[in-house]
Amino acid sequence: MILRKSSLALISLSMAFSVGFGGSAGLTKPATPGSVSRAIAQNQLPTNWNVFETPEGAPGRRIGGGTRGTCPKSASGMIALVPENNLGLTLSNTPTFLFYVPKIEGADPGQIEMEFLLMDESDPENAQEIYQHRVPLPTGGGTIALTLPPDNNLPPLQINQFYSWYFSLICNPKALEPSMLSIGGWIERVESSPTLTRELEQLTSRDRIAVYERELLWFDAIGSLAQLLRENPNDPLLRQRWNALLESVNLSEIAQAPLLNLEQEQTSTRDRR
């Protein structure tokens, strides 16, 4: 299980990224719709998602570790669809997070719940939980998508600020001391340049994926691609792009997992202080 706070690591992480990235996307040559479509079809978009260095000791785990307590052994196979350094960038105020959850044999309905937490750690001494989402475990394994809602009670994600997120499987949630298995990482919302904003406005949602990849906007790339695949599950070019994107972060083993749609059954938000 990973810890839900690491303020000193977050400070170091923020310093490293402010030097390396500069907090603004849109520094490369604009694309045209035709060139983007050809690049997607031909998989000509090699991307190094780990160009940003994270300091030693920074929290983050994208693959579940050993189980403990009452959690079934198979629960340790859950995976966050993020780069290996556990950090991704976004332009969006309502980014989508994706997680693979294996089919857990022998789990009774209600025995295991899934929980997502988003933490504002801008104040190292007073980390704030700003979003929580908990739903029952789906009956079959697959990749699930959780999108931050456009909720008036959820203040906008701040530009150039890091947020930590945690995805957990809670075993026997009604017990006095339920067992928990967690993975987690970081997300930063960055500001789009005027050039990038104009470029994206001229492209279709399909063609924007290549631009997101070019600009290393992980959460925008994978969230948009997952949405398109749910709407067009038999599109071979989208499937090819999905496989290539997961391969770029060494997650080819879950590329064929079904994309699951989950209804939000319980959501709570807390104001940022």
TrEMBL record:
Keyword Signal: yes
InterPro entries assigned to the protein according to its UniProt record, in alphabetical order: DUF928
UniProt keyword annotations, A-Z: Signal
Pfam families: DUF928
Signal peptide positions on this chain: 1-21
Protein name: DUF928 domain-containing protein
Organism: Phormidium pseudopriestleyi FRX01
